[in-house]
Amino acid sequence: MTPKPARGLIGWLLRRTGFAGVCLAPWGIYILPEHLTNPNLIKHEQAHWRQWQRMGTVKYYATYLWQVARYGYRNAPMEVEARNG
């Protein structure tokens, strides 16, 4: 999945929360325009895209939210997996 520039509401939300990109499966990967050339960020969001493909929409979001609530954002297993490639 090729990232799209995050504009409008998505861009505003990313800036407001301090994130530079987000995987909003099944709609796409959105990255703030000034970060579109960041290969690590693109790789990270593409890893989330693969997680979604593997898990499906409901399981992906339910698992992600549960993991973040249980372990915190940095230690959530899906985030660790995305950081590691």
Strand and helix order: EHEEHHH
Shape type: globular
Biggest β-sheet: strands ordered side by side in the sheet = 1-3-2
Range of strand content: 5-15%
Low-confidence residue ranges? none
- Total count of helical runs of at least 4 residues: 4
Mean pLDDT: 97
Q: State the distance separating the first and last CA atoms.
A: 15 Å
Helix content: 55-70%
Major sheet details = 3 strands, mixed
Radius of gyration: 12 Å
Number of strands: 3
Structural class: mainly alpha
What does this structure look like?
- This protein has 85 residues and is mainly alpha-helical.
- The protein is built from four helices and three strands.
- It has helices at 8-17, 39-55, 57-71, 77-83, and strands at 4-5, 21-24, 28-31.
- The chain has a three-stranded mixed sheet, with helices on both faces.
- Helix 2 crosses helix 3 and helix 2 (39-55) crosses helix 4 (77-83).
- The longest helix has 17 residues, at 39-55.
- The two termini are 15 Å apart.
